[in-house]
Amino acid sequence: MYKGKKVIVVLPAYNAALTLEQTYHEIPFDLVDEVILCDDASKDNTSELAKKIGIQHVIVHEQNKGYGGNQKTLYNKALELGGDIVIMLHPDYQYTPKLLPAMINIIGEDLYPVVLGSRILGKGALLGGMPMYKYIANRLLTFSQNMLVNYKLSEYHTGYRAFSKEVLTSINYNENSDDFVFDNEMLSQIIYAGFHIAEVTCPTKYFEEASSINFSRSVRYGLGVLRVSFNHFLQRTGLVKLPMYQKPKPL
């Protein structure tokens, strides 16, 4: 725990057997109380390995529900277990678990209710091998998003995120997409609800075993991001009322 607050790390997993153990063993268990892994119908032995190395809660989707669907399962379970600070860490070792203490501290000290590990602050993305087309798309999308949602972040596309319980119970994330655009919908909801977001510089690694989406899916993701941003603009200006921005029903 951190000052009486229960800390839970959630791992959205898909074919993560090659990198899971390395990721798990770098988690600081002097601060982290429980780990939840959701195996989204992997074709390898991710779930079996997760149980073998001692992960307390292993959930298996019999059918693939997508990246967003995986996160919904994880956050719902974390809240069910009484998590006060919930951190999403990808088990593909693209993001270092060594930043967990800093992220836990920021939320645990009530400085910010949300923390993002940013690959863009500094030069972590390019030094870590992010393809140039993804870097340029990230910068263009982030500029557009900052303008449309009336906020300022260095990037909206990191998969390294920490949330307080208050944030997760205040936004309607179960209404979001089951695909990769879930992450952007969640940030849109958080900003619309008035929560402030901290960012910490995060090194990242691009290598063969790390998960990544191909060019065509990247284009689809980019179009989805723009749709979310325009919807946010319409919502905050009162032109529409969308279900995703309404208060969630109790679980």
Can you describe what's shown?
This protein has 251 residues and is an alpha/beta fold. The protein is built from nine helices and seven strands, in the order βαβαβαβαβααβααβα. It has helices spanning 20-25, 46-52, 66-80, 100-108, 124-127, 132-149, 165-170, 182-192, 215-236, and strands at 7-13, 34-39, 57-60, 85-88, 114-118, 161-164, 197-201. A seven-stranded mixed sheet has the order 3-2-1-4-6-5-7, with helices on both faces. Strand 1 (7-13), helix 1 (20-25) and strand 2 (34-39) form a beta-alpha-beta unit. The radius of gyration is 17 Å and the shape is globular.
Radius of gyration (CA) equals 17 Å
Distance between the termini: 24 Å
Largest sheet: 7 strands, mixed
Strand content: 5-15%
The number of helical runs is 9
Compressed to H and E, one letter per element, the order equals EHEHEHEHEHHEHHEH
Keyphrases for this structure?
251 residues; alpha/beta; 7-stranded mixed beta sheet; 7 strands; 39% helix; globular
